[in-house]
Design the sequence.
């Protein structure tokens, strides 16, 4: 049995040596036939150079150098498409997820006889604001998405070759990886893990908002459906309100027209129209990206021995 380990690098230089040592120890408890694939996602530090140094010591290391930073999820897919193992263990190299989890994942897969074992945080890491944002994200996403994702799921997972083959058939340019993992189907089993924290994150608040918007519109068209129902509801309310005003005007008391009410109505309807057009515009931008047929990532060079 051959085992592949896939990880991405972005500001990762300081973690790579320890990650390599710890993942190597975990792998050797399972098999001696393996490969470790490092994907350099345009890291601004010397992650690439450090990975190439490790490759000089171990020919089983493969380094994929992307031409620029394409983003975490796209870099992961580049690594998954290049792996050749019967099993593939995906994990971040920043050591927030313990590389020794590989052994637990393998035991769970053997016990459950499943195609995928994915990690779920026992308790979400981070400060109160990060936990709150995560809670709201999962609630909103699973309300809007047709295929729900597990709450507090992490990137670490062990996958077999059949599942990887199916996963690689997804050729979307705009995608949310956690949703793609679910959409691929197969028999998947969760494993509760404890995720550490390195104290800082490359995901700023604006990037988290961007990720949330991309995740929702990539996985579901429900916002468009909700816009239709919202418009229909407002039209119904406006019609009933207008009928009520006319009845009051003709049969109860003559009403004096009010400039503030007219202006407030215009602002409300104008803002609502802009909001709805904005939602439609986001979907159109996704269609625009897909129809251009650009590659998800561009590989500058594959460093294999």
Sequence:
């Amino acid at each position: 049995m051959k085992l592949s380990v896939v990880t991405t690098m972005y500001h990762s230089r300081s973690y790579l040596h320890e990650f390599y040592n710890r993942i190597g120890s975990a792998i050797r408890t399972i098999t001696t036939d393996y490969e470790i694939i490092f994907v350099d996602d345009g890291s601004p530090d010397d992650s690439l150079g450090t990975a190439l140094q490790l490759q000089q010591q171990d020919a089983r290391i493969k380094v994929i150098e992307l031409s620029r930073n394409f983003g975490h999820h796209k870099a992961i897919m580049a690594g998954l498409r290049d792996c050749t193992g019967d099993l593939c263990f995906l994990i971040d190299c920043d050591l927030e997820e313990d590389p020794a989890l590989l052994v637990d994942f393998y035991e769970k897969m053997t016990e459950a006889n499943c195609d995928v074992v994915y990690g779920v945080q026992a308790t979400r890491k981070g400060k109160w604001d990060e936990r709150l944002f995560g809670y709201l994200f999962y609630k909103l996403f699973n309300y809007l998405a047709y295929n729900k994702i597990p709450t507090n799921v992490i990137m670490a997972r062990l996958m077999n070759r059949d599942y990887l083959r199916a996963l690689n058939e997804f050729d979307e340019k705009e995608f949310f990886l956690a949703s793609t993992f679910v959409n691929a189907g197969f028999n998947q089993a969760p494993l509760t893990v404890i995720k550490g924290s390195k104290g800082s994150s490359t995901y700023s608040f604006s990037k988290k908002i961007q990720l949330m918007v991309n995740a929702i519109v990539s996985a579901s068209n429900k916002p468009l459906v909700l816009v239709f129902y919202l418009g229909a509801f407002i039209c119904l309310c406006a019609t009933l309100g207008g009928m009520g005003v006319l009845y009051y005007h003709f049969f109860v008391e003559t009403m004096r027209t009010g400039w503030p009410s007219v202006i407030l109505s215009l602002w409300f309807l104008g803002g609502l129209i802009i909001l709805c057009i904005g939602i439609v515009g986001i979907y159109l931008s996704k269609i625009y990206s897909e129809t251009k047929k650009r590659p998800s990532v561009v590989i500058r060079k594959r460093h294999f021995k």
Remarks:
- Residues 3-204+299-303 form a domain with the Spore Coat Polysaccharide Biosynthesis Protein SpsA; Chain A fold (CATH 3.90.550.10).
- Strands lie at 3-9, 34-40, 61-66, 87-90, 116-121, 153-160, 188-193, 299-303.
